[in-house]
Design a protein that fits this description.
CATH superfamily of the largest domain: Aldehyde Dehydrogenase, Chain A, domain 1
CATH class of the largest domain: Alpha Beta
CATH architecture of the largest domain: 3-Layer(aba) Sandwich
Radius of gyration: 25 Å
CATH topology of the largest domain: Aldehyde Dehydrogenase, Chain A, domain 1
Number of domains: 2
Strand order of the largest sheet: 12-13-14-11-10-16-17
Helix content: 40-55%
Number of helices: 16
Number of strands: 20
Shape: globular
Bound molecules: nicotinamide-adenine-dinucleotide
Strand content: 15-25%
């Protein structure tokens, strides 16, 4: 790596996947300027023109699917099947955003109210202009697509800064857009490390969509505050899965294991904690242990868990496991993580709630299962962390009630992460997990500004005049008492 370029290295074998420029503030600002000019052209295409361009992009991605799967695997280390799944979900969101933008954002009439019956009132949603999208590496297609597709469909140009761990995927996505006929500068990519992202926040974009860690989210928000640039922050999580005494235990165990270990646990909405009712805890933990022990981590194609994408995250995983064990937690499957980025799945039980393994995002293949005497206790413990992204509830009778009480923006009942695959549902969290929403109608509106217009159709009682007569004030007095008394 030199001062002006950086290498993207595969966590599978250390090979260089690609070399990319480290772009500085001037280059980022120039890219944003070009995107601003392209934004005019993109906006002028209208909803149907943009839909055609986004549909062509989607078809191009499918036409080159194997290439993208191989690139995602090379840069993240995840199994090819998981890369395929991630791309499928991203394509579904791209299709949904393209086809629903008109219905959600077009100008519509609203009832003007009795006082303003002489006005016609309309509401429409206009694009911001240029949206800066800053992405993480864990789902390098699915995660940024939640901002890219929705921002583009809403009529914005985008400047995307992919993670320094997955720049090749970011550049590839943009190449596919251009290859499919999209205007080159309407979807631009800048590459680099953290400072390139910071430069994007200060480059005059009209909105920033950030996905990444909570700590970086705060830095992004601070940078954007300098110019009052609005932000949407999709940050980390510490999601819990609750298992009630009447739950389908096999299904719950299966879901917990997938939620915890898929993508080697590097999932913002992954399951890191389980609270299981004592009445069924023994059977549940046995089943989870059985399924966990069956999983193998490795860099070969057959391994169900790949290596950690970011090798230094292994230190965090090790520290959390050590902390859990030091506080009396029980290592049911796996041991203290070995050196290196390949970490076999780890199942911990009866871990002290104050330990970092319970309170902080681990972002590795670990799962903490703690037993609770009641589902009220499960809710209390699940909600006792600063994060509030999503969660999961397994219960035959109380699913909806528990889901409503679980803190966070999304909950799956009798499944895990199902909400992320429903394009019509908004995605986002509360607390340290951030704010704002991607996906769904809320996700489209996140990338647009409401514009309200009234048009006077005829003169009625004119109240906004300096020549208002005392008689009019008497009418106003009667209206107040009649309508609002
Ligand atoms: P990160 O915060 O380290 O980096 C995210 C992006 O921000 C990268 O592109 C990075 O280059 C950039 N960046 C770094 N410093 C910056 C700065 N000062 N200003 C602007 N940009 C800067 O996160 P990561 O390690 O890439 O991703 C993992 C994290 O992302 C986890 O916490 C995970 O939970 C979270 N995540 C959240 C969601 C969600 O939708 N809520 C989805 C995926 C991942």
């Amino acid at each position: 790596m030199t001062a002006t370029t950086f290498d993207s290295l595969s966590p599978l074998d250390g090979r260089v996947v690609g070399t990319f420029p480290v772009q500085g503030a001037d280059e980022v600002a120039a890219t944003v300027d070009r995107a601003r000019r392209a934004a005019e052209e993109w906006r002028a295409l209208g909803f149907s023109g943009r839909r055609r361009a986004l549909d062509a992009w989607r078809r191009d991605i499918v036409a080159h699917l194997d290439e993208l799967i191989a690139l995602v695997r090379a840069e993240t280390g995840k199994p090819a099947g998981d890369a395929r799944l991630e791309i499928m979900l991203a394509l579904d969101h791209l299709a949904w955003a393209a086809s629903h933008a008109r219905r959600v954002l077009r100008r519509r009439s609203v009832f003007p109210g009795l006082l303003m019956l002489n006005q016609s009132a309309t509401l429409g949603y206009l694009p911001y202009g240029v949206v800066g999208v800053i992405g993480p590496w864990n789902y390098p297609v699915f995660t940024p697509m939640g901002s890219l597709a929705y921002a583009l469909a809403a009529g914005n140009a985008v400047v995307f800064k992919p993670s320094e761990y997955t720049p090749a995927v970011g550049v590839w996505l943009r190449e596919a857009f251009v290859r499919a006929g999209g205007p080159a500068d309407a979807f631009a990519v800048v590459t680099g490390l953290g400072p390139t992202g910071a430069a994007l926040c200060r480059a005059g974009v009209d909105k920033v969509a950030f996905t990444g860690s909570t700590a970086t989210g705060k830095a992004v928000m601070a940078a954007c505050a300098e110019s009052l640039t609005p932000v949407v922050i999709e940050a980390g999580g510490k999601d819990a899965l609750l298992v009630d005494e009447d739950a389908d235990l096999d299904a719950a165990a299966e879901a917990a294991v997938w939620g915890a270990y898929s993508n080697a646990g590097q999932t913002c909405i992954g399951i890191e904690r389980v609270y299981v009712h004592t009445a069924v805890a023994g059977r549940f933990v046995d089943r989870v242990a059985e399924l966990t022990a069956d999983l193998r981590a490795g860099v070969d194609d057959a391994a169900r868990l790949g290596p950690l994408t970011m090798a230094r995250q292994a230190d965090v995983v090790r520290a959390h496991v050590a902390d859990a064990v030091a506080a009396g937690g029980h290592l049911r499957v796996g041991g203290l993580p070995p050196e290196g980025a390949v970490i076999p799945p780890i199942l911990l039980t009866d871990v002290d709630e104050r330990s970092t393994a319970v309170r902080e995002e681990t972002f590795g293949p670990t799962l903490v299962v703690n037993r609770v005497a009641s589902m009220d206790e499960a809710i209390r413990r699940a909600n006792a962390v600063r994060y509030g992204l999503s969660g999961s509830v397994f219960s035959r009778r109380r699913g909806k009630e528990l889901a409503m009480r679980l803190r966070g923006g999304m909950v799956a009942i009798n499944a895990v992460i199902a909400f992320a695959a429903v394009p019509a549902l908004p995605f986002g969290g509360v607390g340290d997990s951030g704010f704002g929403r991607i996906h769904g109608a809320d996700g489209l509106r996140e990338f647009a500004t409401a514009k309200a217009i009234t048009r006077q159709r005829f003169r009625l009682l004119t109240l906004t005049t300096m020549r208002r007569r005392p008689g009019v004030d008497r009418i106003v007095d009667r209206i107040i008492r009649a309508l609002y008394g």
